[in-house]
Amino acid sequence: MEIFLLETIDNVGRIGERVHVKPGYARNYLIPQGKAALATPENIVRFEAMRAELEAKADAEVAAASGQAEQLEGHVIRIEAQVGAEGKLFGSVGSIDIVNACEELGVTVERSRVRLPDGPLRVVGEHMIELHLHADVHIPLKVVVASNDPEDAEDAEDAEEAVAAASDEVVEAVEATEPAAEAEGADPQAADAEADEAAEAAAEAEESAGSEQSDDAETAAAGEESSDESESA
Predict the structure, then answer these.
(1) Where are the alpha helices (DSSP H) in 29-149?
(2) Do 135 and 97 share a structural domain?
(3) Structural domain that includes position 61
(4) Is 107 within a domain?
(5) Least-confidence region, from 121-135, 139-153, 205-219
(6) CA dihedral defined by 79, 81, 84, 87, rounded to 10 degrees?
(7) Which residue among 26, 34, 140, 232 is least enclosed by CB atoms within 10 Å?
């Protein structure tokens, strides 16, 4: 079915464009919602008369969506849920939970604007989702799903502190070895070069020693032959 759009629609087209869509999509959603009209000569004339008004409305919607994006920018959504074994949730976190969390930040987001790339969130941890606040305004949003059990929260905090402490110990150990290395004048590249030179010198010495032993053996053999000839004479 051919229609023309009265506003920009994701994955369909921009305001004023004539597009073909499935009849059910047009009759059941786009046309009743005032987002499109049948591409008849009468409707096209009516649209052209209202074009400036519709475009101004579209610009206002983009500005409103951009304002929502600015309000949410830099925020992390935290949602607590009941957690079972291996960090799996009893149930899941869906788009309605994201909408409610955004409202707590003072931003009203339509449920249809929430995009969950991997479906509902079913495990604890960090998840990246998207909000399509408008056809021209898309933003990423970090969602942290955590246990609503106080004991689990304490365990997680203890684990984070343990990791931080271990990291500090590693840094301190590295910093402690640096002065000693500087005091000894240690230079890893120089040490490697010296080791290579020593290995080459050892190889040359071994080769030279082997050559001298070979010469001595030949000399000794020649002397024995001369002695044998003298005795025979």
Answers:
(1) 41-72, 95-104
(2) yes
(3) 2-65
(4) yes
(5) 205-219
(6) 0
(7) 232
**Tokens matching residue 189:** 């590249």
**Token pair of 31, please?**
């046309």
In a domain, 28, yes or no: yes
Q: Which two tokens stand for residue 66?
A: 């951009």
Amino acid identity for residue 13 in this structure = G
How is 122-149 classified by DSSP, letter by letter? EESEEEEEEEEEETTEEEEEEEEEEES-
CB 89 within 8 A of CB 82: yes
Distance CA 130, CA 111 (A): 12
- Say if residue 193's pLDDT is above 70: no
Q: What is the bridge-based pairing of β-strands 114-115 and 88-93?
A: unpaired
Three-state DSSP state, 176: helix
Can you give the pLDDT at residue 87? 84
Give the separation between CA 99 and CA 60, rounded to whole angstroms.
22
Averaged pLDDT for residues 21-38: 93
Q: How many domains does the chain have?
A: 4
How many Cα atoms occupy the beta-carbon half-sphere of 4 within 13 Å?
16
CATH number of the domain that 112 lies in? 3.10.430.100
Query: Is residue 224 situated within a structural domain?
Result: no
Evaluate whether residue 228 is within a structural domain. Answer: no
Say yes or no: 125 and 176 in one domain.
no
Q: Are residues 92 and 138 in the same domain?
A: yes
Contact between residue 52 and residue 127 where contact means Cβ atoms under 8 Å apart:
no
CA atoms of 180 and 92, how far apart (whole Å): 54
36-74 pLDDT, tens digit each: 999 999 988 888 888 888 889 889 999 999 999 999 998
